[in-house]
Amino acid sequence: MPERHLRIARFVSLAASTCISLACGTNYVYSAYAPQLATRLHLTATESNLIGTFGNLGMYLSGIPSGILVDSKGPRLPLLIGAAALLIGYYPMYLAMEGGKGSTNVFALCFFSALTGVGSCCAFGGAMKAAALNFPQNRGTATALPLAAFGLSAFFFSFISSWLFPGNTSDFLLVLCLATSSIVFISFFFLRVIPVPRAYSAIPPLDIPRGNRLRRTKSGEDRHSPVMSSYVEPGTSTTSHDTIVAVANPDPMPDESSSFLTKSSSSGGSEENRVDAESNYGQAVGNSDIHIDIRGWALAYKPEFWLLFSLLGLLTGTGLMTINNIGHSVQALWAKFAPDEHPDYVQGQQSLHVSILSLCSFCGRMLSGVSSDIIHRKYGLQRLWLIVASASIFSLAQLCALTVENPNWLWLVSSLSGLGYGVLFGVYPTIISEEFGLHGLSQNWGTMTVSAVISGQIFNIFYGRVYDDHSVITPEGPRECNLGLECYRSSYWITLGAALLGLVTALGTIQRHRRRSGYASISTHSA
């Protein structure tokens, strides 16, 4: 096939990846309809939070198995699984909203919510991998589009909700059911991994200094030549799941068994290949790309893993509590500030804040991704400084949440929370790839996000308990809280502590990296 046709096919596939990602971030739109779902089914705030939490559980806990599936079978099979899971997950929730109280129990709703998370994770993983593999030399730009679409998903669907279905949550859930599954299924036919021309082929250097060929591996390591064919069929990877590798060599050609954020071969000269002494320790320093591969149980023996695992959990849980509960916060503040306000207006405000969260998350991801390269390459600083920025933004957001009583100023909480969340997730996968290697990033990132499951569960349940303790049962049956900020204020003291602890942990991790990089520099000069 002529290269021009292949290029067109790649851009068509990239467009499909972007559309798929737009359908995969709908778990973050839950707070736009959660209060109405709780009112319709007579759920407590804790039960409502449990349903949202299970959506997050499905997304994050499926990260490891879906990553393995994508790496071994390629990106297309996970798309079909994702489309089916989204359809099966959202449709019973629509039926429950239609049926009202007693039509479905909470545990069933939790299960179906988890299915939506699984579907989102599988489809998004496949979309990201296909985008990365089709543009091996422009991987950052290629994956930026699906990432941006994922971040804008909540804004897109909440806008549809407020525009087409104001006050009609049932129809909105039906749209979520049909639109998400249909977008993924239709895009399946356009998403392909296109064979890469040989012009992209990596050429092994002939004069790598002997001192740079440092390797320490466990059994089962792939010993194939780094020169690979133009296209490798899915499922051909022979890399061990418990491998530690440090080797100076060029990036191999991407295939459907490579990790979706693997860095492309660089031709940017010494500045592009410069290894930052502050953030890369225990490795040779020079112009060659240094590849490590730490995954599986080997992670458990690395103190850096537990530091980064805890740090991600603290900050993600802080963000998720606001993301999943902004609808309840809007309802509580308006119930005291303007108790006679029409319910449709309040629901519109819920959608507005979901949109603010989504847009600010998108901006944070873009800002974080670009600035991390600038501070790392131009100024020689660790990317972890952006995590310090994220923790600081989260701390400010919690202070606003503790003081804002006027619902017209609640945008401060939603915008800062979205921005902090976006900055966090815009740079964290890159930090993980630099720390533990690019080739096992899919699995390692899935392992890391387990921390979000733990902290998100704890903080969400705590918010629900606090809200329920201040709620009363109305004569009509549903619970409601008319105390404004006091309905949930206590929960934000916990997340403020978590954000500050995350800030301290990030600063401590930076200091640890500095000490280790200094030790590595001394060892290198001594050798």
Automatic annotation (TrEMBL):
It is found in: Membrane. It comes from the Eukaryota. InterPro entries: MFS (IPR011701), MFS_trans_sf (IPR036259). The keyword Disulfide bond does not apply. Signal peptide: none annotated. GO terms for cellular component: fungal-type vacuole membrane. Residues 211-280 are annotated as: Disordered. Its main location: membrane. GO terms for molecular function: transmembrane transporter activity. It holds the Pfam family MFS_1. The chain crosses the membrane at residues 12-30, 50-70, 77-94, 106-132, 144-166, 172-191, 305-323, 384-404, 410-432, 492-510. It is a multi-pass membrane protein. The keyword Transmembrane helix applies. Gene3D superfamilies: MFS general substrate transporter like domains. Keywords: Membrane, Transmembrane, Transmembrane helix. Residues 257-270 have a biased composition (Low complexity). This is (Perigord truffle) hypothetical protein. It comes from Tuber melanosporum (strain Mel28) (Perigord black truffle).
